[in-house]
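@channel anyone free to eyeball this complex?
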Amino acid sequence: MIRLLLADDEVLIRGAMAALLDLEADICVVGEAADGETAVALAGRVRPDVAVLDLEMPPGDGIAAAEQLTIPVVLVTRHARPGVLRRALGAGVRGFVPKTTPASALAEIIRQVHGGRRYVDQDFAAYALSEQPCPLSPRERDVLRATRQGKPIKEIAAATHLAPGTVRNYLSTAIAKLAVNDRHAAARAAWEQGWI
Amino acid sequence: MIRLLLADDEVLIRGAMAALLDLEADICVVGEAADGETAVALAGRVRPDVAVLDLEMPPGDGIAAAEQLTIPVVLVTRHARPGVLRRALGAGVRGFVPKTTPASALAEIIRQVHGGRRYVDQDFAAYALSEQPCPLSPRERDVLRATRQGKPIKEIAAATHLAPGTVRNYLSTAIAKLAVNDRHAAARAAWEQGWI
DNA sequence: CGAAGCTGATGACATTTGTCAGTACCGGAC
DNA sequence: GTCCGGTACTGACAAATGTCATCAGCTTCG
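replying in thread with the prediction:
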C-alpha cells in the first residue's frame, strides 16, 4: 500500500484527486495540504511514501517544498516552462506531469516513482531538451524578478541594494541577451523560459 | 436525473470532477470538452440540462461560451477578479464558484442552478459588492489591452489606428485614474479588476 | 439648448528609460 | 600571471514615455 500526501491550493481539485487516487487498490491518501509549508510539516507527522505537489502554490512554489522532503515527489503543473523542469530535477523531484494527465495515468506514475524510477512527461522532456541554458547572471535574474512585480527602477534599486544606474545596466544587458525591447518584455520572456 | 456538460482544459481536473460528480445519484455527466467552442458544439448534440465551465479556457474564456449556451451555466474559476463576476452575470451565468469549492458542495450548487435558482460564492459576492464601477472609457481599455501584450506605443497606435500621441493621452488618463506609475502597472491593475 | 463626456489630435515639456563608454575589484580558468 | 566574467558604479546621451494645455467634432443627458 502506497501512503500518499497530496498538496494543491485548490480544494475542488485536491479533493477530486484524492477521491480518485483513493479508489486505486494500492494507494491511500494519508494527508492533504493547501500549501508547500503545510505539506512539509504534515509529511513529518504522517510519514507518507510519496508526495504529489502542485507546482503553483502561493506562497512559495512546489519546488521549494520538494527540496525539503526526503521522500519521492511528483510535481503536477498547469503550464510547462522549460527551465522549471531542470530546476525541479535539480531539487530531486522524481516525477513531472501536466494537469492534462488522466488520473489513472497519474496513479501509474505514482507507482513507478514509489518503485524508485523516474517519470517525466514526454512533451515536457522534449521541451526541456530543446531548452537553452539560461544566459542570465544571478543579478540579472534578480532585477528581472523585481521588474516582474511592476516596480519602477528606483524601487528595484532600493529592493536589491544597488545603485539605480547599476540596475539599468543589468536590465540593459538582460534586454540585449533576450532580444527584446524593454524590461517588461525581458521579465516576461525570462519567466516564460522558467529562468526566474 | 441532471444531465451535465463539463468543460475544463485540464484533463486531470476535468476527469476527476466528472468521476466525482457522476457518483452523485441524480447527476450524470453526458459530455466533456477541453475548450469553450467544443463545449458549445457538444451541447448542441448531447442536450445537457446544466453546463459547468472553467472560466479560463484558451482560446476564449468561459464567459464567451456561456453567452452562446441557452442552458443554465455554472462558472468555476481559479482566481476571482471582481469585474468578471459582473460580466458573467451579464452573460446569463447562473452559478459562480471558486476552485476551492469541495465537489459535494458543487453538486448541491448544480442542483440549485438546475432548479432555476442562482448561486454565487459568498466571498465573490462580497468582493463584487465592494467593487468600483469601471472608470475607464472603451478606448482606454483598448490601449490597456494592447499594453498588456507588451507592445510599445508605436505598435499600439498601429493596432488601434490611432496617432501615437493619442495613445499616450489615453494611457496617461488611465494611469491617473488607476493611481499607478506606468502603463504596465495600469494594464495589470485593470486586468486584476476584471476591467479588460 | 447647454453642459458634460468621449473621441482624436497636436505641440511643448520633464522624466524615465535604455544604451554606451569607461572604471574598478574580485575570483576562477588556462 | 593573465584573461575573462560577474559585480558595482559613474557620467553622458538619445529615445521612449508621461504630463499638460489646447483644440475640435460628436453624442447624450438634463
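from a first look: Residues 2-129 of chain B form a domain with the Rossmann fold fold (CATH 3.40.50.2300).
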